[in-house]
Amino acid sequence: MTRIAIVTGASSGLGKEFVKHIDAGASGQIDEIWVVARRLERLEALQRTCGTPVRPFCLDLTDPASFEVIEGALGQTPGAEVALLVNNAGFGVFGNVAMQDKRDGGAMVRLLMQAPVELIYRALPYLRRGSRIINIASVAAFLPQPNLAVYSAAKRFILDLSRSLDAELGGSDIHVTAVCPKFMQTEFLDTPGDATAARAMTAIGFERADRVAARALRASRRGQSLYIPSLDMKAYYVASRVLPYKTALAAERALGII
Ligand SMILES: NC(=O)c1ccc[n+]([C@@H]2O[C@H](COP(=O)([O-])OP(=O)(O)OC[C@H]3O[C@@H](n4cnc5c(N)ncnc54)[C@H](OP(=O)(O)O)[C@@H]3O)[C@@H](O)[C@H]2O)c1
């Protein structure tokens, strides 16, 4: 049996933190960590810091051929078991859709929605009792967000997918957790699109990527289908479930977030 943890978007930010915690034993016995991103040199640098064998995959997850590479690698690994899949790779473009580059929307849809779905399908034959999937959503998933329309809709998709998948697989002790962080100081905000819109939204505050990763792994081990790391965003989630959308939107406008 080869117990594998797959982490996408491992070349920086939250993904890198996940790898560090997995390497330190936060997900129990893991024989190999497969790290996926486009910047190979970053993955190789991360590999050198880990005690666990790390296998870098230099892949663009907006390209469907990438999924075949992962499927092929799983097929060629004797006794492969996907103990953990972390669908983390992502980027977001802030600002009005009308102002965005027309390539951004499709790329967000492919990376934030299609890639996790494709990787989940390919991991399914290799999941065993106790396996876990973590899908990185966002607090942007709670409500449709003007100035972050495609991103927030894509994160809603992954949030809903995670919860229904968890209900489907939970009976076999395979759990799927949607993680909804607020802002983190990563490379995510380096190329935000409309920087003014991005700055306004960061008024909700930041949390630390290393803590989000550690706590998300704990929540996933407990079998939680939804994990919201910060207390204020838990309250926001509850409000988003009870307030009419227009009221919530008016509140966001009054707070200067959108
Ligand atoms: N930071 C925040 O404020 C925040 C808040 C809530 C949720 N999130 C979510 O958290 C996740 C991690 O983001 P982060 O904050 O850690 O941002 P980050 O530092 O920019 O990391 C993004 C990761 O995704 C990878 N990636 C981007 N495009 C890719 C592609 N086409 N194919 C393969 N990999 C790709 C990047 O690697 P390469 O560039 O090397 O490919 C990088 O490793 C994302 O899903 C994001 O939506 C972030």
TrEMBL record:
GO terms for molecular function: oxidoreductase activity. InterPro entries: NAD(P)-bd_dom_sf, SDR_fam. SUPFAM superfamilies: NAD(P)-binding Rossmann-fold domains. One of its GO terms (cellular component) is membrane. The keyword Oxidoreductase applies. Keywords: Oxidoreductase. The keyword Ribonucleoprotein does not apply. It holds the Pfam family adh_short. Belongs to the short-chain dehydrogenases/reductases (SDR) family. This is Oxidoreductase, short chain dehydrogenase/reductase family protein. It comes from Collinsella stercoris DSM 13279.
